[in-house]
Amino acid sequence: MGESNWAGNHTYGADAVTTPRTVDEVRAAVAAATHVKALGSRHCFNDIADSPGGVLLDLRALDTGVEIGDGTVTVGGSARYGDFAQQLHAAGYALPNLASLPHITVAGSVATGTHGSGRRQPGLAAAVSAVELVTADGGLRTFTRADAAFPGLVVGLGAAGVVTRLTLDVVPAFDVRQDVFDGLPWDAAYRHFDEIEDAGYSVSMFTNWVNDAVDQVWVKSRVDAFTERPELFGAVPADGPRHPAHAAGIPADNCTPQQGVPGPWHDRLPHFALAFTPSVGDELQSEYFVPYRDAVAAVRAVREIGDLVAPLLLVSEIRAIAGDDLWLSPCHGGDRVALHFTWQPRQPEVEAVLPVLEERLAPFGARPHWGKLFDAVPEHYPRLADFRALVAGLDPQGKFRNPFLERHVFGG
Ligand SMILES: Cc1cc2nc3c(=O)[nH]c(=O)nc-3n(C[C@H](O)[C@H](O)[C@H](O)COP(=O)(O)OP(=O)(O)OC[C@H]3O[C@@H](n4cnc5c(N)ncnc54)[C@H](O)[C@@H]3O)c2cc1C
């Protein structure tokens, strides 16, 4: 069929892509299919969304509207964060956090455990309070936090069914400012890691692992809880807007406003603005989550192989994420730090380095991001057997299973 993901590094092997316009059309398509999966905005870098020989449901035409309630917002299975954030803000509400880009769908993001940054901010799936799901038999079921299966379904890897609606917790709207600091000496990053992570609502460190210092630290602060800092443990305020890959010569044109200019949460929490191509564009990505307490040791371990990693890299990002109880969330069971790699589009060379990287991070029980490139998923998910049983019960014929799930989840 020739359609591919956002990065263009995976061509879907499904026989057909269909575009249902109503929930009933989704139900009919699922009931009729032998193999089927939903597509989000296609921002994953692997075959997690594919259904070789089956049908892909592109939900873009499924407009189920946006309902803002008291402390919640309910959106459709195809909604992208950027589609309703402004409307939410205008109604006086905010989502607690966003990923680096608003271009991704809520359903696709929470399915893979997508996250933003912030030591006290869990991944985006933690905001989900209810999920409406089309199950393998074409049935329509709603699961809420009151259901025992709920923590297994939210980071569901698209394995349990097609999500047609999600309800998310919201908080009162807030404004954010971004301040970027250049050149954080590595020894200061190691010694003051906790204080740096606590320097704002959301903190990101950008590095290529081999430079003498962390190239940039982005501090996103709530305007109502801002602390003025003339410097950050030796890092100095940037003299202009920065792209995360500034060191690779990329201009900041597609980034959200920096240099302390306040603005609404939805226009500062993502690094990249909705109207532009996010990140670099021509790239691949990988990411590994290690326990928060091991962050400095894990960073040191990657720096030891910096010479292997850096030639393939555009930039790396280090972010902290609060833990949650969702069974397949990479942050299940405790706070984690994510070591992210934006690679040059040289997949065979990247894939040769990933096992080396994973070996280095294995002592920390590193979990890979489900939506990015990785070699293997270690059995570091205590509820994995429960997830397998849950999916087997909802989808006994394996309609929603695919080679990715067989390789990494079901062990087939
Ligand atoms: C430039 C860029 C920046 C990124 N930044 C971040 C970041 O800051 N943090 C982070 O954690 N990740 C990040 N990612 C990764 C991205 O957030 C994830 O890959 C996310 O899953 C993409 O969502 P999507 O809508 O594109 O889903 P897709 O890639 O289309 O699908 C992902 C999975 O969700 C399933 N799915 C999608 N919709 C539904 C539905 N309605 N019902 C059931 N299953 C469904 C699919 O079947 C598939 O299994 C980034 C990716 C890119 C390309």
Distance between the termini: 26 Å
Instruction: Point out poorly predicted stretches.
Output: none
Oligomeric state: single chain
Fraction in beta strands: 25-35%
Which ligands, by name, code or SMILES, are bound? flavin-adenine dinucleotide
For this structure, the CATH topology of the largest domain is Alpha-Beta Plaits
Number of continuous helical runs: 11
**Averaging pLDDT over every residue, what do you get?**
96
Write the layout of secondary structure elements.
Elements: E1 16-18, H1 23-32, E2 36-39, E3 55-58, E4 67-68, E5 72-76, H2 81-90, E6 93-94, H3 106-111, E7 118-122, E8 128-134, E9 140-144, H4 150-153, E10 162-169, E11 171-172, E12 175-185, H5 186-191, H6 193-197, E13 202-207, E14 213-222, E15 236-237, E16 263-264, E17 284-291, H7 295-304, H8 306-309, E18 313-322, E19 336-343, H9 347-361, E20 367-368, H10 384-394, H11 403-410
Parallel strand pairs: 1-3, 2-3, 7-18
Antiparallel strand pairs: 4-5, 5-10, 6-11, 8-9, 8-10, 12-14, 12-15, 12-16, 13-14, 13-18, 17-19, 17-20, 18-19
The structure holds flavin-adenine dinucleotide.
Residues 6, 37-44, 48-49, 59, 77, 99-101, 104-105, 107-109, 111-112, 114-115, 157-158, 162-163, 278-279, 285, 369, 371 line the site of flavin-adenine dinucleotide.
How would you describe the overall organization of this protein?
It is built from eleven helices and 20 strands. By secondary structure, the protein is of the alpha+beta class. The protein folds into two domains: 63-173, Uridine Diphospho-n-acetylenolpyruvylglucosamine Reductase, domain 3 (2-Layer Sandwich), CATH 3.30.465.10; 175-368, Alpha-Beta Plaits (2-Layer Sandwich), CATH 3.30.70.2520. The strands form four sheets. Strands 7, 12, 13, 14, 15, 16, 17, 18, 19 and 20 form a ten-stranded mixed beta sheet that branches. Strands 4-5-10-8-9 form a five-stranded antiparallel beta sheet. Strands 1-3-2 form a three-stranded parallel beta sheet, with helices on one face. Strand 13 (202-207) and strand 14 form a beta hairpin. The longest helix has 15 residues, at 347-361. The protein is globular. The two termini are 26 Å apart. The relative contact order is 0.15. The structure holds flavin-adenine dinucleotide (FAD).
